[in-house]
Amino acid sequence: MRKALPTEDLDQVLEWTADVWARFDRARLFITGGTGFVGSWLLEVVQRANRVTSSRIEMVVLSRDPDRARADAPHLFNASGITLVKGDVTDFDGDIGAIDVCIHAATDVADTSKAADALRIFDAGVIGTRRVLDLALSNGASRFLLTSSGAVYGKQPSSLLKVPETFQGAPDQLDVSTAYGQGKRAAEWLACVYAQQHALHVSVARIYALIGPAIPLDGPFAAGNFIRDALAGRQITLKGDGRPVRSYLYMADLCVWLLRMLNRGESGQAYNVGSERAISIAELATQIEFISESRAPAVTVPAATGDEAPPRYVPDTRKARNALGVDAFTSLEVALSKTINWHRTHR
């Protein structure tokens, strides 16, 4: 059973997004992916806002398995003000009543090396997004936030330290494993078409790597798997040589970025969302070992597998910082400490 997120983080988000709660008071919010890492954080923030600011936002949440969602997080999904709607983004009943705002945060990053999984993920990105856009229009929504990904840029050139929104790279269309990035690119295009053809204000968040309480410890996130092993007293195992470079934005900061984007973002525009502080996977593992005070043998870093520059996945976030007044407010060290301590307490 998942416990509540840190109250101090939720209150910090509310402090930095006061204009959001004034604007969307009594709004009806429809959100997909509400049981996922990003979606559940947003829902807890809204739930906290309803209690603290009396914003009275009603939440309608799409879930494949509402009963499991209630069992996993009863503090969130059994609370008043939340309605769970059973369905998948590609197949759900759109008769949910009038809505004012839509956040499409459903995503799937399973193994795309298998053709069947790749097609399912692509369909979720494209067919699912169109279904949610149609629902938003038919039910009266005026604002739509799409959570996309830095995967839309494809492989980051080694000569480019940070990727701006103007970068014209793309995933390899002949590589089956790029289904996630391909689907997100198509989803962004769809959202922009709807923004142009209808009275729907659409903003796109290209999200990079994240860290924070409730990060899955058995999944596609290396940081989560490292924390799992460190807290279990096991040696952290690296896949590959540990040289790939990433950056990590704390989840409370992410919520501020997304909520400000929903409120202030320019329609038809995409914004990179992430930290610009680069760190290698091996360095991340070492940091997690140190902060968690792991007594397991130190992580073994394999020898580099080639002379080429390590792969990078780091955004240029000047556009969002200038337009939305956001930043990576939480340092990586603090973010890791908060994440590790929450998982240690709630294991």
TrEMBL record:
One GO cellular component term: cytoplasm
GO terms for MF: NAD+ binding; UDP-glucuronate decarboxylase activity
Keyword entries, A-Z: Decarboxylase, Lyase, NAD
CC cofactor: NAD(+)
Gene3D superfamilies (alphabetical): NAD(P)-binding Rossmann-like Domain
Ranges for domain NAD-dependent epimerase/dehydratase: 30-274
Biological processes, Gene Ontology terms: D-xylose metabolic process
InterPro entries to which the protein is assigned, alphabetical: Epimerase_deHydtase, NAD(P)-bd_dom_sf, UXS-like
A Pfam family the protein falls into: Epimerase
Regions crossing the membrane: none
Coiled coil segments of this chain: none
Name by which UniProt lists this protein: Epimerase
Organism encoding this protein: Trinickia symbiotica
